[in-house]
Amino acid sequence: MKQMIDNAIATLENCRFCLMCRHVAPVGMVTNQEALTPHGMALLVTSQPRGLVAWNAETVGIVFSEVDGGNSRAHCATDQPFEEAMAAARAELVAQGLASTAVTQLHAHLQQWQNPYQPQLPQPATGVAQVALFAGDEAAYLWPDTLPAVLKLLSAVGMEVVGVGHGRNNGLFAHSAGFPDLAAQLWQATLDELASVGAKQLLLLSAGDYYAFNGRRGGFSRPVSASARVSPADFIEVTDLLAERLAAGEIAFRKTEDETPWAYVDPTHAVRVPERHERVRGLVTAVMPTPPRELFWRKDRAQPVGSTYIQFSNPPLAERLTRARLQDARDSGAQLLLCEDPATLHHLNRYAGEYGLRVQGLYELLAERVSSEQ
Q1: pTM, to two decimals
Q2: Where are the domains of the chain?
Q3: Which numeric CATH code is attached to 252-369?
């Protein structure tokens, strides 16, 4: 733990007087509070060892208000791992018993049930297959129409899969909240399940899942166990797979007749996987009959909704982040919002009606429009 916090402080020393990512930092954008910008948070964390501030409910609350969406590192010319450093700072506060009751309860729920949403253990994997699909907790509990739609799409390209991790967190959520050991346990549990079904490839439903499993989170990623029979190259987003099959002519979609002005919402963590931006848009345009209304906060500057751990540590802030995305969508002239990420869909849908917007899952739309004639 000491090594982790020392590394965090070293990173945050570099961030405390830097404004390079301030213009894309989500929390600072929606609150207009300098203390909640990356440099403000870094200044706070590095001031405490100097004896300039003390940990109390207010200062701890600031540390647990960093959203961990990836925007700061994505816009850092020197690639400072700001979000990972803040997660390490939160881990230290948890270890010292300084986290709020809400965070402590979140840890207990994750530890007991392996997800933050329902008091239910993951469904055990059954069967044997070369390819597995990580169902996760967000698809299981937040947007359950995702899984049947994805299975239909995979069947259309001749892929039969076995589900793993159904109802289990991918580990990133736990790591963000300051529970790195628990995060590693959750991550490894899915790898062990992957080995048990004999799969050589793991399909992932979202950018967040891909980021978690593809070894990009240095704080909790571990060498893939030999028994799992996979390497990071074998972790693939379903949208990438479908885009490849669409380009190869192995799947096709019928255009919908719905000409409602629409926009694709880059999901939470999308900035961490920049290579996906055009691929997923190719899928959407394959089924939509009209050009998109692009949001201002899109692609490499996409902003997260309140779907990270802050929905528990700071629910009002999570709501403000989600509403900011909806306002951006309304300002674009869109009336229909499309996204494939279950958590992003869930949070957008909570308030979309107040903005005159309708939310639809991309996987479900593609499954409805998949052509039987390729």
Answers
A1: 0.94
A2: 2-99, 131-244, 252-369
A3: 3.40.50
